[in-house]
Design a protein that fits this description.
mainly alpha; Hypothetical protein af1432; 9 helices
Length: about 170
């Protein structure tokens, strides 16, 4: 269901989360939550919009961001009860102003993972700085994502705007 390319991305995201968790000396439960959020966030990224809409009834959401909410539904059906993991996966594409560290860490790992082709030096620097300045790097990542969205002329979600206003 997940392509090789996607699997490689998921592996890099999860490896980055593990590395940060270790360097930040996170408690084991939080480190596990970060790892699991990374592992599951794109589980349905390659599913068709029709398949995703059969899982989640959200006519207001465009196709491109359905895979997060749909993956959260499936995880819940499989017994996942950690809200920190569910909320991270659910909103990883748009962001959420009330995220705890798991949601924030996943958002950053998804953006900063080394396999992406753009701004490699800047993003590698941010990834290296993160354990020393989690909030500062998060703010910068949200800003860069927002700028990219604007440049591409893509729709900006209210949650993304709220997220920016909560960190600026
Ligand atoms: Fe991703």
């Amino acid at each position: 269901m997940v392509s090789d390319k996607r699997r490689a991305h998921i592996g890099r995201v999860t490896a980055l989360l593990d590395e940060w968790a270790e360097r930040m000396h996170l408690p084991a439960a939080e480190a596990q939550a970060w790892h699991d959020a990374g592992r599951w966030h794109d589980a349905l990224r390659d599913a068709t919009p029709t398949a995703l809409r059969a899982i989640i009834d959200a006519p207001d959401l465009p196709d491109g961001i359905l895979h997060g909410p749909a993956a959260a539904v499936i995880l819940q059906q499989h017994g996942e009860k950690r809200q920190t993991v569910l909320e991270a996966v659910r909103w990883h594409t748009v962001g959420h102003p009330e995220w705890d560290r798991t949601g924030r860490a996943l958002f950053m790992a998804d953006f900063l993972e080394p396999g992406r082709g753009f701004m490699q030096t800047d993003r590698a620097f941010m990834a290296a700085q993160l354990p020393h300045n989690f909030d500062g790097v998060f703010r910068q990542a949200v800003r860069m994502r927002l700028e990219w969205t604007l440049r591409e002329g893509n729709r900006i979600f209210e949650r993304t705007v709220d997220l920016w206003n909560s960190v600026r």
